[in-house]
Amino acid sequence: MAMIFGFLYELALQGVQMFIVVLIAPLVMGVTRKVRAHLLRRIGPPLLQPYFDIWKLMHKEAVLAHNASWIYRVAPYFVFAVTWVAAALIPTYASGLLFSWSADLIAIVALLGTARFSLALAGMDVGTAFGGLGSSREMMIASLAEPAMLLIVFTVALVAGTTQLSSIAALFSTAAVGLRVSLALALFAMMFVGIAENARIPIDNPATHLELTMVHEAMVLEYSGRHLAMIEAAAQVKLVLYFSLIICLFVPFGMATGERSLAAFAFAMAVYLAKLFVLAALLPVGETALAKMRVFRYPVFLGGAFAAGALAVFLLFVSRGF
Amino acid sequence: MPLVVALLCIAAFFAVAVLAAALGQRRDPTTTVYAASLAISTVLLLTALAHLIAGGPTLSVRMPFGLPVLGAHFRLDALSAFFLIVIDLGGAVASLYALGYGRHEDAPMRVLPYYPAFLAAMNLVVLADDAFAFLLSWEFMSLSSWAIVISHHREPANVRAAYIYLLMACFGTLSLLLAFGLLAGANGSFAFASIRGAEHTAWASGLAIILVLIGAGSKAGLVPLHVWLPLAHPAAPSHASALLSGVMTKVGVYAFIRIVFDLIGSPSPWFGLVVLAIGGITAFLGVLYALMQHDLKRLLAYHTVENIGIIFIGLGLALAFRANGIYFAAALAFTGALFHVFNHSVFKSLLFFGAGAVLTATHERDMERLGGLIHRMPKTAIAFLIGCMAISALPPLNGFVSEWLTFQAILASPQLPQWGLKLTIPAVGALLALSAALAAACFVKAFGTTFLGRPRTPAAANAVEVDRFSLAAMFILAGLCVFAGILPGIVIDGLAPAVAQLVGGVMPKQSAMAWLTIVPVEQSRSSYNGLIIFVFMVSSGTLTALAIHRFATRATRRSDIWDCGFPLDAPQTQYTPSSFAQPIRRVFGTVVFRVHEVLDMPQPGDTRAGHFGVRVIDPVWRFGYGPLARGIGWLAKHFDRLQFLTIRSYLTLVFCALILLLVVVAAWR
């Protein structure tokens, strides 16, 4: 009986993690937009506006092109589901959850690749110039960002001796690791990759209305109604995913790693949410200070991330002490 | 017993080939040949599978033919059994596919007799247990496949492809011949058992490894010996392309493993470095070449080059780890390589079948002239999509698992003592990550421009779905991609005997793990569970769809394309394969291929058409084979004088050559 109860408790903890990333995602986006608006001396939309937007989109009729295939209709759900699974597998408030071992950091990065692959196909489905443009550029950015991301994974894995996020977080939340050059470089690279992957300034502008400057938005240009709601929600979850990843890898302090009481989890959850909103407020500070880049400047930007990641890995191969 | 069955099956293949050649003049034997090949391959596949799973003993037999003193030795061990599975799975499915596809052949007799012979030869190579039988089957494999490559001989491009293939095959066999000569030593003991037992000097084994890299690498497609693949693989009929690309390249990998890991024994770790570096460069260049292509089959052939690179990265890691006695990591890397051998044979065959289906339906291979086929060929599209996702290493499919294992092996590399390896391995890891990301871009391009969008030509607009046999073959392979992706532990356990035999270590037994997780070293270090991920994806997708259908409106309207308010009807306004690849071409291609875009825009008022062209310089042809061919031409021209000498001059030449050889022999002793 106690075993079954224990299992259900663990399952509930995993469930909380799974649903918190989805439920909080629009709010995080709302905070980002609000702070950005304030920095631009505007009042900005209400904090809960992203929830209203999704609700509104869900109740609008979905318009499909005549030649849209099943890929176009399935892709929004698939992208959302895969992003959600990836986000749910990153330890947010506690390590060692029930399914934390079912995918390591490499698998989570690859899951995001699966989502991107299907969204890029959906962009090409109707056969418009904008869709193809968006898909093509998105895959180009991914081909630059993904190697940088894997070098970050290597760095972290070489320091921690594991690619299991849960073990990494448990180790890094102790003082045993200390301040390291390699981790600083990895954090630097991680920020660049996160900006590129989430289509933020200076790589892409989520608020743009000029077609030729769009990348992600061009790819999903044809979408409407509930499909667009799913794609927006997936983008919000992906932002939370990257914030959670940064929290989990670089500032895991306060995460519930040992004690498994409800009070400990509640405290850890509060700490996690606080960190999440700090990051959400910091993102627009960087964004408002920069202008969007030309497309063919991206290799320089992401090459910087790649170089930082590579340097971190080489340092670690030279000595585990860095 | 399994070995006897296997040899009998090979004999049956030859009998089918002879019968097809003899009877083919009277009536069309297409169905008979392919049905017989299907049956024989299935028997061989099941035999090998049973042998591998049951952990059968190593069997060997000596046949009373071949060289008089040597005979012909054949042996079935775990490694041969694994490669038999790869070959005969490919062979069986290709035969099934050909039952439908082969009927579209204009001149069936140019393919039919060679097809079973080709299958037989590939099987013989992995069973051969002496150098003579090995080289004979190897050469037979090359020649029979050459005959298939040139089957559409009326196209000049195919004749050139077959010529280059023949040159590369001869060169490769020569290298292997020399390698065996070095390994057999002065006594000429060509049986593998005696080569395995003999002591090899570091000098001889090093030279032999280089020769094997050239010989086996030219068959497998290592850069810069890959040049024949993208020419020859598309030239053959599609079911044979699948065999050439999905299976025969693996026989090249087999030759490398057999000679370097098994026969030579324990080479220095520095050879691991060489293999790793070549593998990394091959993977990266292979996928970049593929991105530049707009011929569907040629794109797939270049992708084979990339995947061979990934396999050789795993093999190089295994060599380095084994030489340093780190057996768990060697087992991990070697399992990753063998798993990728299996995976690639499955999804590359699937993709070539898909390309063949597109070719049957539209008579087009050029992606610039396709589009919108998902509406006309929905079933082919699903199978092809699964193949595309698998080869792009996306979870939860099989391609991801083998790359994941290779990444895990790379992460074990700080334990290596050699500095050169320590610094090379992360660089190769970055190349591997880069090629995985580029592969995804390449297959978005391949699937997106072929199956999605609007048809660019009437041929694409009027395509029809292919026959049942072709579809069955594709769906069997797509099913295997999913199966090996969500239950990889079963495949890893199946590979364990071969891994244990060659690198001395094994991965932990995967079927013992809770929830069917795969664990390369230990649970706290890394683990991946394809099944759970798959279940999660399905359940969260279902949950989302249910929630949406519960809370959202289901109103859906079909309308015209929006396209920001300026929809253009002409399908030419879509992105083409070339335009899709343009950003990547700009970023990577300007360095590697010196890509140069030429825009010829007429002045305002001028009515001539504008023109846009891309010039791509293939560095391998420009700086490798081009100068080489010119050098050989120059030498031949100058040696030409020797052809018109007097008898006295000839006698002097013979005498000088004799003296020279005697001096060499004296110096050698």
Task: Tell me about this structure.
The complex is a heterodimer of chains A (about 325) and B (about 675). Chain A has about 325 residues and is an all-alpha fold. Helices cover about 70% and strands about 0% of the residues of chain A. Chain A has one domain. Chain A is globular, with a radius of gyration of 20 Å. The termini of chain A are far apart. Chain B is mainly α. In chain B, helix 8 (about 200-220) runs antiparallel to helix 10 (about 240-265). In chain B, about 55% of the residues are buried. The model of chain B has no long low-confidence stretch (mean pLDDT about 90). The interface between A and B is large, with 87 and 86 residues. Strand 1 (about 60-65) of chain A pairs parallel with strand 3 (about 555-560) of chain B.
How would you briefly describe this protein structure?
The complex is a heterodimer of chains A (322) and B (669). Chain A is an all-alpha fold and 322 residues long. Chain A contains 11 helices and 1 strand; from the N terminus they run ααβααααααααα.
Euclidean distance between termini CA atoms of chain A: 48 Å
Number of helices of chain B: 24
User: Based on helices, strands and strand pairing, what is the structural class of chain B?
Assistant: mainly alpha
Question: What class, by secondary structure content of chain A?
Answer: mainly alpha
Strand order of the largest sheet of chain B: 1-2
Please provide the ordered H/E string of secondary-structure elements of chain A. Answer: HHEHHHHHHHHH
User: How many extended strands of chain A?
Assistant: 1
Largest interface: A-B, 87 and 86 residues
Distance between the termini of chain B: 46 Å
Q: Estimate nothing, just give the exact number of structural domains of chain A.
A: 1
Radius of gyration of chain A (CA) equals: 20 Å
Which runs of chain A of at least 5 residues are low in confidence (pLDDT < 50)?
none
Instruction: Give the total of beta strands of chain B.
Output: 5
Give the DSSP E fraction of chain A (strand runs of 2 or more residues). Answer: under 5%
Low-confidence stretches of chain B: none
How much of the sequence of chain B is in beta strands? under 5%
Percent of residues of chain B in helical segments?
A: 55-70%
